[in-house]
DNA sequence: CATTAAACTGACCAGCAGTCCAGTTGCTGC
DNA sequence: GCAGCAACTGGACTGCTGGTCAGTTTAATG
């Protein structure tokens, strides 16, 4: 898997063709029955090309997820409130969770693709969660920690994110019931971070 | 996969040998690298026997999970409070969540085994969640609904259960950090179901 | 247009879940 | 006790998968 320098014209074309192919296949088939051969054929390239570019099945899925998550990443870093900086943590958190639910809802297969990729390739030691998960997790934990530094916000963030990995919930999302999940997460967060929870308006978070 | 009538002596012996084998393999290896061939060899039987008894890889995993979950199932149906009937819903819910976290913690691979089995074998329509998940989900939703019938407790139960399916959380559990998860779930539930939440002591839940 | 490194390809490999059936074995009625 | 049979057993076999590689093509550069 070549480093991300400038891609040759044909390479770039094939790269996007492959991502588009996965995207489409994921919309109509369950991830488990999408073979790399099928992806390659759909994209109109040889199978070797897939592995030359993405290294592995997980690499391909990861690339797709990163592409889809890119906009949201920009929005929380630089965008306008309440998603971006400026709004109070609780509002930002609620906005972020809504955005994630929305993102996942609109892309049925997105997290189904992410799921396997977040798991172990083999049984090496500590395992690295992939960048998208890390970013989302850090964002949630950070915001929650500003309002409730007394909680284990690290674990809390994992719990909240877990909901978009669960099969039954992904099914519900596929059925268009994203609103229900959004509402439930909202209820949870508002119950946990009541309106004036922060001890200081200008939050001074403690980093343990 | 034969119906669950009385098993012949040798069949019963092989059945438990196979379950023990999976159990042990799951303790030392990642689920993805446990082949049915390996399971059969470890148990000292032929591969055909595995499929004759359990039908499929998922069937085998499911059987193991059911065995492990059996005691808990009995405890919530007939056992003493707070796990069993008799205690107020909130206390039962907290006790149940602790028990689940405990169960999963003590069996690293248990939910890792359950994970794939809960997913789609192919892309048939509605998909059946397996019995253990259904039971757990129904229990949580029922208890929560008694205290807060205004909430979408069905979705809430999915969200709470999702935490024991998440890879990062399973890792944490494997590292012995079950207490952290237990605490976090506790915080969530107590925030959501405050002490005297139920409008009626004898709850009358609404089934949508 | 010549050169070169990058990119492409599809035959190939090892390993997997699941099938199949010929041979074996525990059970049951007599 | 034993005969007969259904249930059980095992391991060779199949079809498919993710991943590899040596040989070929092609975009970029001066």
Q: Give the class-level CATH name of the largest domain in chain A.
A: Mainly Alpha
Largest sheet of chain A: none
Chain oligomer state: homodimer
Radius of gyration of chain A: 19 Å
Task: From the 3D structure, determine the CATH topology of the largest domain in chain A.
Answer: Tetracycline Repressor, domain 2
The coarse silhouette of chain A is elongated
Instruction: Give the largest interface.
Output: A-B, 39 and 39 residues
Total domains of chain A: 2
Low-confidence stretches of chain A: 120-126, 199-208
Domain HTH tetR-type (chains A, B): 12-72
Keywords (chains A, B): DNA-binding
Protein name (chains A, B): TetR family transcriptional regulator
DNA-binding region (chains A, B): 35-54
Explain what this protein looks like in three dimensions:
2 copies of one chain form a homodimer. By secondary structure, the first copy, chain A, is mostly helical. Chain A folds into 2 domains: 1-55, Homeodomain-like (Arc Repressor Mutant, subunit A), CATH 1.10.10.60; 56-208, Tetracycline Repressor, domain 2 (Orthogonal Bundle), CATH 1.10.357. In chain A, 66% of the residues lie in helices and 0% in strands. The first copy, chain A, has 10 helices and no strands. Chain A has helices at residues 9-28, 36-43, 47-54, 57-78, 89-106, 108-118, 131-147, 153-162, 167-174, 178-192. In chain A, helix 4 packs antiparallel against helix 5 and helix 5 packs antiparallel against helix 10 (178-192). The longest helix of chain A has 22 residues, at 57-78. Chain A is elongated and about 60 Å long. Chain A starts with 8 loop residues before the first helix and ends in a 16-residue tail after the last helix. The relative contact order of chain A is 0.10. The interface between A and B is large, with 39 and 39 residues. Chain B binds a DNA duplex (30 and 30 nucleotides) through residues 2, 8-11, 14, 35-37, 40, 45-49, 51-53, 55-57. Chains A, B: It holds the Pfam family TetR_N. Chains A, B: Keywords: DNA-binding. Chains A, B: InterPro entries: Homeodomain-like_sf, HTH-type_TetR-like_transc_reg, HTH_TetR, Tet_transcr_reg_TetR-rel_C_sf. Chains A, B: Residues 12-72 form the HTH tetR-type domain.
